[in-house]
Design brief:
By secondary structure, this protein is an alpha/beta fold. It is globular. It has a single domain, classed as Alpha/Beta hydrolase fold, catalytic domain (Rossmann fold, 3-Layer(aba) Sandwich), CATH 3.40.50. It has eight helices and eight strands. Strand 3, helix 1 and strand 4 form a beta-alpha-beta unit. Helix 2 packs across helix 3.
């Protein structure tokens, strides 16, 4: 399949650690894997992905989301982070940039802690640290499942399992050990994961950059997605292309 911009897009199902996952790969260049939010299918990345040039962009439906069947038992955040590594394995990628949004941001934080050698740059969007986070309003949290880009009926079991994964998880103990260059982005009017969460995360990850942009929680909507893509592109473009260059860059600083 080819997009209107002429970039090749491949949709396929892969078996990752025993789970059937729908995966989409588009473009060519430095790899970026996208980890989605609660109940969001990979199609919700389209406004963001369409703005990225010169990258291999990989998105996938986690178990119980979109076209990926729900698991029989709940998966922990650790297990979900291991699935990100498995998707990279399937794409024959040793290292990549990782961007996680909302619930996917928690998975991305865990991935950064567990697989530092597989991570070039980390981007955390509209997310929180789990236990110890500043919660949004109840009315805002009730709207969390709304799918603005590709309306689907969420898998009830999948949504429940993903919610349970957050119940006892926290990144606060290990944020200070994350070594990858990191960017934390949130909307100034986010009432689901208030900006205090992004400030906490950015303050604990050594050297992390914090950007608070206009908008609410849902930065995947077309207009904020375009702005987000520009912010993320500027950040990723400044990173060294490989580990050796990163060491040389650090030494120069």
């Amino acid at each position: 399949m080819t997009t209107s911009t002429g970039r090749e897009v491949e949709d396929r199902h892969v078996l990752a650690k025993g789970f059937d996952l729908r995966v989409r790969v588009r473009g060519a260049g430095e790899p970026l894997i996208l980890v989605n939010g609660l109940t969001r299918p990979l199609d919700s990345w389209e406004p963001f992905s369409a703005e990225l040039e010169g990258r291999t962009v990989i998105a996938f439906d986690g178990p119980g989301v979109g076209d990926s069947p729900a698991p029989t038992l709940p998966l922990s955040i650790v297990m979900l982070a291991e699935l990100v590594a498995a998707v990279l394995d399937d794409a024959e990628l040793r290292r990549a940039d990782v961007l996680g949004i909302s619930h996917g941001g928690a998975v991305a934080q865990e991935f950064a802690a567990r697989f530092p050698d597989r991570l070039r740059g980390l981007v955390l969007v509209s997310t929180w640290c789990g236990v110890g986070a500043t919660l949004g309003t109840w009315d805002a949290l009730r709207s969390l499942d709304a799918a603005p880009i590709a309306p689907t009926v969420p898998d009830v079991v999948g949504a429940m399992w993903h919610s349970m994964a957050m119940a006892s998880w926290s990144s606060i103990p290990f944020l200070g050990a994350i070594t990858a260059p990191s960017l934390v982005v949130c909307g100034s009017n986010d009432d689901i994961t208030p900006p205090a969460n992004s400030r906490l995360i950015a303050g604990r990850i050594p050297g992390a950059q914090l950007v608070i942009m206009p908008g609410g929680h849902d930065l995947q909507r077309p207009e904020p997605a375009r702005r987000l893509a520009r912010i993320v592109t500027r950040f990723l473009d400044q990173l060294p292309a490989n580990r050796e260059e990163r060491h040389e860059h650090a030494a120069a600083i």
